[in-house]
């Protein structure tokens, strides 16, 4: 089994799917690993590091896609489309509900594609969680930065100082991304409110972090909070499906000017009505006095941290896929997005 690892093509994406440490394990298992030159550079791993771990360095994307299994971070980009082919196994983040062009390619080229983000083990999403944790934390960093007046924001310091009130942060979703955002904002001293439809998710967060206000999601509760919100973070998820539009345009109008909306769920289409995806070249745009940040690969900005976290999470699954028959494996059946020109994940069929 040959495993190919390409250099990521998404703008300013710095992650590489597997680190040299992981490659060494795969090579020890008897796999051949082909890494495109420069794939690890932004994450701090040189070709030499990978070569020392047993990888072969290849100098074209074609050589990577000639492998039996391609393991990468983000969904294939247009440059990669012509290299997709029947029988190829692809394992990466796909977010197909928000990427119909990629879905059409995977179907047309009859790729057997597995999505990191839907791979389920004991009801959890272990390959999404580490990146969600990172994205949640970055969401707060983005908010803090753009709330500064020279960046176009209202000039609010989220943590406040003595004798001045802190900024207010509202987070939609008390799952992995939302919890990490809330905990980080709370640690800064912000006044944090988290809304979710799941009492269990709210309880899990609030029981550990009493300073975080946890509210069952409903439109009225959100509408009440918005008029003095400084940073609104969207972090809801319906696994595999498009995100629900919880923040309508009318609700956005309630936010004071100069405030920031970060929609982490943009990779699933976004939970803020009308929001447009951005990338790290220009992470934010301003409209009607509000800053909208909707980067679809947020962890790509901290590739040293993210690549190590991602590689550690995916390695056992890559080893399994490379050595065993995935057809009878529940985790891989939950990750299967397309096979033989058919849509296989139920959330993509509706
Ligand atoms: N932009 C990026 O770079 C990036 C990176 C990682 C994750 N993400 C995205 O972040 C989002 C959150 O991921 P996660 O791992 O935290 O998911 P999660 O499953 O851990 O949490 C999602 C939460 O949303 C809640 N929810 C779902 N529908 C709701 C609704 N209608 N009203 C209120 N709450 C609702 C769920 O109850 C759950 O607690 C996903 O869209 C994921 O793809 C984006």
Walk me through what this model shows:
It is a single chain. The protein has 350 residues and is an alpha/beta fold. The mean pLDDT is 97. The protein has helices at residues 20-28, 47-52, 61-65, 100-108, 129-146, 176-188, 199-208, 219-225, 249-252, 303-323, 330-335, 346-349, and strands spanning 2-5, 32-36, 56-58, 69-71, 89-92, 112-115, 168-172, 191-196, 213-216, 231-234, 260-263, 284-287, 290-293, 336-339, 342-343. Strand 2, helix 2 (47-52) and strand 3 form a beta-alpha-beta unit. It has twelve helices and 15 strands. The protein has two domains: 2-125 and 303-340, Rossmann fold (3-Layer(aba) Sandwich), CATH 3.40.50; 129-300, NAD(P)-binding Rossmann-like Domain (Rossmann fold), CATH 3.40.50. It is globular. It binds nicotinamide-adenine-dinucleotide. Residues 117, 128-129, 131-132, 135, 173-178, 196-198, 201, 217, 235-238, 243-244, 246, 264-268, 295-299 line the site of nicotinamide-adenine-dinucleotide.
Quick gist of this model?
32% of the residues lie in helices and 17% in strands. It is of the alpha/beta class and 350 residues long. The chain has 2 domains: 2-125 and 303-340, NAD(P)-binding Rossmann-like Domain (Rossmann fold), CATH 3.40.50.720; 129-300, NAD(P)-binding Rossmann-like Domain (Rossmann fold, 3-Layer(aba) Sandwich).
- Poorly predicted residue ranges: none
CATH architecture of the largest domain: 3-Layer(aba) Sandwich
List the helices and strands in order.
EHEHEHEEHEHEHEHEHEHEEEHHEEH
Distance between the termini: 35 Å
Question: Structural class of the secondary structure composition?
Answer: alpha/beta
User: Strand arrangement, largest sheet?
Assistant: 3-2-1-4-5-6-14-15
